[in-house]
Amino acid sequence: MMARVLYCWILLMMLLAGELTMARLGFGSAVCACAVLMGLVIIFGFMRIAQAPPLAAIFALGGLFWLVILLSLGSLDSFTRTNFAVGSAMSSRPDHAPASPDESR
Fold this sequence. Notes:
Keywords: Membrane, Transmembrane, Transmembrane helix
Helix content: over 70%
Shape: elongated
Transmembrane segments: 27-47, 54-74
Order of helices and strands: HHHH
Low-confidence stretches: none
Structural class: mainly alpha
C-alpha cells in the first residue's frame, strides 16, 4: 500500500514538473493534458475508483458534475462582465449642470 502511494506521489511530482515546463514554454494544451493526467492519477491511484463499489463511482461522478457546475458559474462573471470607459468626461460634471452652492464661493 505504501509503495502505491509513493509511486502515485512521484508520478504527480513528475507531472507537476512537466506542467510547469510546458507552461513556461507556452504550450497551453500540454498543460491541460498534464492536469487531466494528474486528476486521473488521483482518481485511479489514491481513490482506487476501479476497485470501489459502484455507489462510490456514482458519488465521484456526482462530485465531478457539481465541480463543473460551480466552476462554470464562477467563470460566468468574468465572461459576461462589461468594461465601461471611465475618464475625465464621465467623472466630471457636465457644462450645462448648475454649480452647487459650495462651488460658487
